[in-house]
């Protein structure tokens, strides 16, 4: 006989572990299935830059012990210029952070099974009723949640996932010591998170330096397999080649050394999600996907998607009046579009336009940012069209024309989130969160 739970969560990343933590705290019987071995967790899944913002730390009670460094500014770089904005942030020790989520969830009552590779859903009468793992083992629940990241085996099997190869981002990161964080040719990166737009280093993407304390930093780059990457890429260059190319040429790394055995590789999809749920099922975190298109930040949004899913479970299983229909679980879709990523489509289009620009335009972009007042900067970051228009010039017509040619099928009503093609469940004020 298969064991029965209220909820199965597949994956113990930030989204999955936070969802289990929330559900256990609400008194639900929840089991988490995680592929990795517990003794080494998280070894193969230790992939995030782990840069986030104080709102995440505060909202989810993250302890100082898992924070490598609190930062006080964001620096944007182009090949020959930079822009600095004072904005508080935090760089997490990602492995410690994930282990803390698991430990705290267990203390609240969540059950964890490591070495448990999910192989597919158990479907009866057209509905998912549980999960197969390790080939032949089974566990069943009223609701199943896929938090396995881009692999999304359950979401794909149920026809919920719509992850597309052309929106696939590939990344690599080292942790370095001996980094010159205040080199005279660049902006001061002391207690900063830096993002660099430079097709010479990361064509169709960006690179970063996140100060983690003393003379140490997380240094990495990623690119999306988009038209901009194909146009600007160096023939035969892999992501490792681009990393070596940057480290060899940037004087800030002249005396830097890699921490032995510390290397992070990862991938994610940066696109609009399709459906997020169906009968008895929801997908959260990078299985959706949830990464912010502008900043590349996924932890906070993944955690918020986890909380939205937990809220939805509460509504579906409230006081024994079980309703796990697609209509009821579409509460999650509504919360995702309203509270997790309300401007996701506009931010995605803004980012796609940005990656089409050349390096000279990136230099000018830094100067444009410096000319905006604080209110306009906030609006531009929130993808306000009028604020974004202030960053455009008459000679950007060719860039806009290229963008529109690539997006000729866009319905400009699409600047609003896609409607979910399911009847919405009711959401009372008690289910809202910020």
Automatic annotation (TrEMBL):
Keywords: Oxidoreductase
Organism superkingdom: Archaea
EC number(s) on file: 1.3.7.11
Organism: Halovivax cerinus
Keyword S-adenosyl-L-methionine tagged: no
Coiled-coil boundaries: none
Keyword Oxidoreductase: yes
GO MF term (any one): oxidoreductase activity
PANTHER family (UniProt xref): DIGERANYLGERANYLGLYCEROPHOSPHOLIPID REDUCTASE, GERANYLGERANYL DIPHOSPHATE REDUCTASE
Occurrences of domain FAD-binding (ranges): 5-312
Protein name (record): Digeranylgeranylglycerophospholipid reductase
């Amino acid at each position: 006989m298969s064991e029965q739970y209220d909820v199965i969560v597949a994956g113990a990343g930030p989204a999955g572990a936070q969802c289990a933590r929330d559900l256990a705290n609400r008194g639900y019987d929840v089991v988490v299935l995680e592929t990795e071995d517990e003794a080494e967790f998280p070894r193969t899944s230790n992939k995030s830059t782990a840069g986030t913002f104080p709102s995440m730390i505060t909202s989810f009670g993250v302890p100082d012990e898992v924070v490598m460094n609190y930062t006080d500014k964001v620096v944007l770089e182009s090949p020959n210029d930079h822009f600095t904005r004072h904005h508080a942030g935090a760089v997490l020790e990602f492995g410690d952070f994930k282990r803390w989520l698991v430990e705290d969830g267990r203390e609240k009552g969540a059950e964890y099974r490591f070495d448990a590779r999910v192989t597919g859903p158990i479907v009866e009468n057209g509905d998912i009723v549980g999960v197969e793992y390790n080939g032949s083992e089974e566990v069943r629940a009223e609701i199943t949640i896929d938090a396995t990241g881009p692999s999304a085996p359950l979401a794909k099997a149920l026809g919920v996932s719509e992850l597309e190869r052309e929106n696939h981002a590939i990344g690599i990161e080292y942790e370095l010591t001996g980094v010159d964080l205040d080199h005279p040719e660049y902006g001061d990166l002391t207690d900063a998170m830096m993002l660099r737009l430079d097709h010479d280093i990361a064509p169709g993407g960006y690179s970063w330096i996140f100060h983690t304390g003393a003379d140490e930093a997380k240094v990495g780059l990623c690119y999306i397999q988009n038209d901009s990457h194909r146009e600007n890429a160096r023939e035969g260059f892999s992501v490792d080649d681009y990393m070596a190319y940057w480290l060899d040429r940037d004087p800030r790394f002249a005396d830097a050394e890699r921490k032995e055995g510390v290397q992070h590789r990862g991938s994610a999809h940066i696109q609009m999600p399709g459906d997020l749920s169906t009968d008895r099922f929801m997908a959260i975190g990078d299985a959706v996907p949830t990464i912010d298109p502008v900043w590349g930040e996924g932890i906070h949004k993944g955690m918020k998607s986890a909380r939205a899913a937990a809220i939805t479970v509460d509504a579906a299983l409230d006081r024994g009046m079980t309703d796990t229909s697609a209509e009821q679980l579409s509460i999650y879709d509504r919360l995702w579009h309203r509270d997790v990523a309300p401007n996701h489509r506009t931010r995605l289009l803004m980012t796609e336009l940005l990656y089409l620009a050349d390096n000279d335009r990136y230099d000018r972009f830094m100067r444009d940012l410096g000319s905006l007042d604080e209110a306009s900067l906030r609006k531009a970051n929130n993808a306000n069209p009028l604020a974004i228009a202030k960053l455009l010039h008459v000679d950007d017509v060719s860039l806009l024309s290229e963008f529109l040619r690539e997006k000729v099928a866009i319905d400009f009503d699409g600047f609003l989130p896609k409607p979910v093609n399911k009847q919405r469940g009711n959401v009372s004020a008690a289910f809202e969160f910020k």
